[in-house]
Write a structure and sequence with these properties.
The chain is an alpha/beta fold. About 40% of the residues lie in helices and about 20% in strands. It folds into three domains: about 280 residues, Alpha-Beta Barrel (TIM Barrel), CATH 3.20.20; about 80 residues, no CATH class; about 110 residues, Alpha-isopropylmalate synthase LeuA, regulatory domain (Double Stranded RNA Binding Domain, 2-Layer Sandwich), CATH 3.30.160.270. The strands form four sheets. The protein has an eight-stranded parallel β-barrel, surrounded by seven helices. The protein binds 3-methyl-2-oxobutanoic acid and zinc ion. Zinc ion binds next to loops. The site of zinc ion has 5 residues, from loops.
């Protein structure tokens, strides 16, 4: 068939050459007619296991790939690009397992316009219920000269040969003129036409380096429909990279102009700045159904957050907090006005119901700017319904914590509540604590405990600041106790996390647990000790 068996250069080595970019047609300001579209499905082609898996450090093992593929099927993507079988035996095996085991979506394998690639791709997917071969070659002058060190005529011939060969093996063949967005349009149309003649049923238009502007990219898609004579029912797909942060915008614009397949990845992962984000595309089409009149995807939105977490965890790439739809802050409301609005009526500040995409609920991030209403709401979600008087007290406590921390999380609130909601009367209450310690001095702690007779202050040195605090508290309470157990843990993350101290003390008769929480661990320790003392006093009174 005359296909080359080796590629001389690595695809990732293509250099950006700004002068040659000028060869790209000038952006015209003429409007292009939008393709007539009524109630059409936009197919979701997921390339997380291929393009995103190329991300440095994101390599997955076979089991991990399989799990993600099953999850993608559960989310109802239309096509899974499972890998690039010729690239390694491991990739071949993974694509083969996915092809054999994952039901529902088409299973696609990538290949260059190289015979051995196509043979390997087919070898891996031949047993899939719905197999697809995806073959590609760079068509921009910069890729033709810089990667394949070839010429346009040769690339055209290799395209035809490759698509013909792929078609002889597999009914569904997708062809990508790589770097299409920077390819001279006349040549691009010719390559597309010949690929369709050779049997390609899907033509993918990649903006490989994320160079295009939305209007420009949409116009290119419209021109393809207008200029490629045999376009017929061929599905036009788009594959946009995010180097200028425009991958999703470019893909949406392309849909408006007739593209019916979007190549995308979970969390927008992929080469360099990544690919079009699957969740953003799916939710943009769904949320703005008024704008994308009649278009839909088959994506099950409730799987969006779960799969985002799975991919993030398995690839070891955290999701940025402000990432649309799946970022930790995507539904978190911090300002008092926003919190009040969302509590009263969710859609005042949310365009998507977080539960629709798999979040538990909107998050009210409590901060020093939050009011009592937001605090009461959050406490009720956590199962507490304090009286107004109690709420005022908890609010004071909350503000103390909020002033020290940027955000007060549920775990912080739980700690405050465990600390506040006491079962025994406070014979002693820790009013203040002051610690002096360092490397060459004995730690000294001063405590002020409120008792019936007023505030009693005592100080003591000790083996450490906690020991000193406990000795100072002993001087006030005058109840001999033995510290049997002491444990401390951080409730939330970060340097400003709340520390929870749980202790066990013993007197002659009882073994009692004391609990204290604070962003200051010495204070938490002192509170735990005072809590235990109060319980001892209470127990002795009961007897
Ligand atoms: O970015 C790109 O052009 C690609 C192709 C293989 C479609 O990933
Ligand atoms: Zn890509």
């Amino acid at each position: 068939m005359g296909l080359k068996t080796t590629e001389e250069s690595d695809l990732r080595d293509a250099e950006h050459n700004p002068t040659s970019l000028k060869q790209r047609a000038e952006i015209e300001t003429t409007t292009v007619k939008e393709k007539d579209t009524m109630s059409e499905q936009v197919y979701i082609f997921d390339t997380t296991l291929r393009d995103a898996e190329q991300t440095p450090g994101a390599a997955l093992n076979l089991e991990e790939k399989l799990e993600i593929a099953h999850h993608l099927a559960k989310m109802n993507v239309d096509i899974i690009e499972a890998g690039f079988p010729v690239s390694s035996p491991g990739d071949f095996d993974a694509v083969e397992r996915i092809a054999n085991e994952v039901q529902g979506p088409e299973i696609c394998a990538l290949s260059r316009v190289v015979e051995k690639d196509i043979t390997a791709a087919w070898g891996a997917i031949k047993d899939a219920k719905k197999p697809r071969i995806h073959t590609f070659v760079g068509t921009s002058d910069i890729h033709v000269a810089g990667i394949t060190r070839s010429d346009r005529e040769t690339i055209l011939k290799r395209t035809v040969d490759a698509v013909t060969y792929a078609k002889s093996l597999c009914e569904t063949v997708e062809f990508s003129p790589m770097d299409a967005a920077r390819t001279e349009p006349g040549y691009l149309f010719k390559v597309i036409e010949e690929a369709i003649d050779a049997g390609a049923t899907i033509i993918n238009i990649p903006d490989t380096v994320g160079y295009a502007m939305p209007f420009e990219f949409g116009k290119l898609i419209a021109e393809i429909f207008d200029s490629v004579a045999n376009i017929g029912d061929t599905v036009i797909s788009v594959h946009c990279h995010n180097d200028l942060g425009l991958a999703v915008a470019n893909s949406l614009e392309a849909i408006k102009k007739g593209a019916r397949q979007v190549e995308c990845t979970v969390n927008g992962l992929g080469e360099r700045a990544g690919n079009t984000s699957l969740e953003e595309i799916a939710m943009a089409i769904r949320t703005r159904s008024d704008f994308f009149d009649g278009y839909y995807t088959g994506i099950e939105p409730k799987e969006i957050v779960p799969i985002s977490r799975r991919v993030s965890r398995t690839m070891g790439i955290p999701v940025q907090p402000n990432k649309a739809i799946v970022g930790a802050n995507a539904f978190a409301h911090s300002s008092g006005i926003h919190q009040d609005g969302v509590i009263k009526q969710r859609d005042t500040f949310e365009i998507i119901d977080p539960e629709d995409v798999g979040w538990q609920e909107s998050q009210i991030i409590l901060s020093p700017r939050s009011g009592r209403n937001a605090l009461r709401h959050r406490l009720s979600v956590l199962g507490y319904s304090p009286t107004q008087e109690k709420l005022d007290k908890i609010y004071e406590r909350f503000l103390e914590v909020a002033d020290k921390k940027k955000a007060v999380h549920d775990a912080d609130l739980e700690a405050i509540m465990r600390d506040e909601v006491r079962s025994v009367p406070e014979t002693f209450h820790l009013e203040y604590i002051q610690v002096v310690c360092g490397t060459k001095i004995s730690p000294t702690t001063t405590v002020g405990l409120r008792a019936e007779e007023g505030i009693i202050e005592e100080a003591s040195t000790g083996d450490g600041p906690v020991d000193a605090a406990y000795k100072a508290i002993d001087r006030v309470a005058k109840i001999p106790l033995v510290l049997a157990d002491y444990s401390i843990r951080s409730v939330t993350e970060g340097k400003d996390a709340i520390g929870e101290v749980t202790i066990r003390v013993q007197d002659n008769q009882h073994s009692i647990v004391g609990y204290g929480a604070s962003t200051d661990i010495i204070e938490a320790s002192a509170k735990a000790y005072v809590d235990a003392i109060n319980k001892v006093v209470h127990l002795r009174q009961e007897v």
